[in-house]
Amino acid sequence: MATFDVQLKESLPHLWRYGFSLTRAHHQTDDLVQDTVERGILKRSLWDALHPLRPWLMKIELNIFRDKYRAKARAQEVAMEDDFDIGADDRTIEARSELRAVMKRMNDLPDEQRQPLLLVSIGGLSYAQAAEVLDVPIGTIMSRISRARAFLNKEAAPQVPGIRSAT
Amino acid sequence: MTDYRNIEEKISAYLDNQMSEADRAAFEVEMDGNPELVARIERWSATEQLFASSIPTPSDAHLDALLSASTAANTNRWPGLRIAAMLVVFAFGGVGGYGLSQFTTNPQTTIIVQATMGATNSHRVFAAEKRHAVEVTADETEHLQTWLADRMGREMTVPNLSAFGLTFLGGRMLPFDDRAAAQYMYETADGKRVTLFMTRLDQDENTDVQVLEDQGLTSLRWQSGEWVFILTAPLEQQQLAPMQVEVRDTLL
Predict the structure, then answer these.
(1) Which domain of life does this protein belong to (chain B) (predicted)?
(2) A161 touches chain B (CB under 8 A)
(3) pTM above 0.80, yes or no
(4) Which residues of chain A does B177 touch, with a Cβ-Cβ cutoff of 8 Å?
(5) How many CB atoms lie within 10 A of CB A129?
(6) How far apart are CA A47 and CA A5, in angstroms?
């Protein structure tokens, strides 16, 4: 396992992209990543060196986001696409409208489904690592991610056969 | 075997590369002869790539600046940690960064970064396939060339890379943005897959070869007029470079 410093450096782009998927704004992402790195360095003695660092840092990042940023973001009610640079590139009108639709659905996802999806697909974590970050069983991660994807693709949410507790 | 509760969980685990070898093999058998399932998997994957393409990737320099600011803040607050913070700053000097940011340090349009992501994502998805690695196999090369030339609007001769020990496996069409892209796949003697991704961009430009290294994959990207070519493989840059020359000469 690489050292703390090397892993921290390697985690940075993932922390940033995951942070952006949470905050949806450049400067807030910078602040969030900086806070995460600061807190990670302060708490480095608590890190278990046998485990990869990135999930641990992402857990810190998510906690900071929840404590500090989410209330603010909700209050502002910034439309997702405003900060997503859709206008800045040379996508065609069709591609833009398709992207808007995906983002709108991403926005409409319940948080419990969006979080595991972002951790895995943007943050690059495994299901086991995402389960650790969110403190839920791995089966719950799998179920929530699959329902999130079905929703993003405008499909009916998957039905879980048999009697099981709701996850 | 993992206990998947429905097909959606299987698709997700497949896309996220979270299946065991046995589960993956079984699922690929399930996909075989089920074009609706394959189409659904491709749709789910495309949706996610679309979303991912809208999240910017900061440059190495930007991330280093964030890091320095963080470590400086810590140093001030906790004098005892100064040594640790200095070590962090020091360690960062020599360590390679995240691949894509090498591209974003130059002024690039979003679309070329998207094309690179599309190429590496497609490489990861299809190079991992055994039964469905290509859409049209090498024994129908002529048909493949004609078909792709029609869709891409350019000559699509398959470069011959046998001099480098590569076997041509075939190719497929891929969606990219609002247009078509093509992927050719080759294989080395020891089973490593090499893919060539090609698509049209909107701006006309000629560039040198740029190198991307990301999580075990090396990509060489160059633009020739409106066309961008991205050669991707789990090989060293030096091994790929002569192949790139051959590809470029064939497809100029």
Answers:
(1) Bacteria
(2) yes
(3) no
(4) 91-92, 95
(5) 22
(6) 12
